[in-house]
Amino acid sequence: MRVRVVRCEGRDDVAVKLRTGAADLALTDLPVPGDLAAHPFEQREVVLISPPGLKVREPVPLTALDGMRLVLPARGSDRRVEIDTMLKRIGATPVVAVESDERGSWIGWVRAGMGSLLWYRNQLDDTEGVAVRSFMPPITRLIGLVHAHRQLPRSPATSWRSPRRPRRPPQPRPPLTP
After folding, report:
1. Residue 6 has what pLDDT?
2. CA separation, residue 45 to residues 20, 65, 66, 83, 107 (Å)
């Protein structure tokens, strides 16, 4: 089996790679366009990663994002559009502290006190020097395995589909008594 990991800008880029055959299977935020097959995989919590000294109530109310200094993806990127859409939906206008697609630098900028970051809790490896805070109400994203509506290549990699549970033989019922 051969696995090649390809980073994508966002769901639109994932869709292009799947439609053109540049990828057979993807793991991405749902929903995806209707011409792709999606299989929900897990629910991920979005958290606020901030300098420990940031004074904010915990769990963090969504309204606290209004006026907060944030480290954000570059303007115009798919990720940034999704974050801006979410912020608009909750009525928050943050202050842009840093704009960059250098994901590996985001936590360092938070540690340096430049701003806070919205990120998935399960993708945090090193939380030293930062505070990780949940939102109330929680912000979650559904992640799923996605592919084009065509036959996937035959390989062990296609065995990700959940196995069917074997049917249990019917159990005898006790007789009814009047």
Report:
1. 83
2. 31, 16, 20, 14, 17
